[in-house]
Specification:
Largest sheet: 2 strands, antiparallel
Order of helices and strands: HEEH
Strand content: 5-15%
Helix content: 25-40%
Radius of gyration: 15 Å
Number of helices: 2
Number of strands: 2
Shape: globular
């Protein structure tokens, strides 16, 4: 995990620039209707993510957890998320 700032209003490295271009291609598709998008990329060493259409990172994280749980359940597993009292995600 990097110490780089995570929330940006524009791509800040090669992978996030690529994620931005992928999202732009999706937005140009005739079937696109203002859906929210999360684009994950990994080059073997580092990851990049682009969040598009979300009002906050927290909203995107909630959607990611829902999708991850669905993937796990489809494979006979489950995901439980427990909030910590007074704790913050870092």
């Amino acid at each position: 995990m990097s110490d780089e700032k995570r929330t940006e209003n524009e791509p800040h490295d090669r992978l996030t620039r690529l994620a931005d271009r992928i999202a732009r291609m999706g937005k140009d598709d005739p079937d696109y209707d203002d859906e929210k998008m999360i684009v994950f990329l990994h080059d073997g060493d580092r990851g990049g993510i682009g969040l598009f259409g979300y009002d906050s990172d927290s909203e995107a994280v909630a959607d990611m957890l829902i999708y991850l749980r669905s993937i796990l359940r489809a494979n006979g597993k489950d995901l439980q998320v427990h909030a910590l009292r007074g704790g913050e995600m870092s």
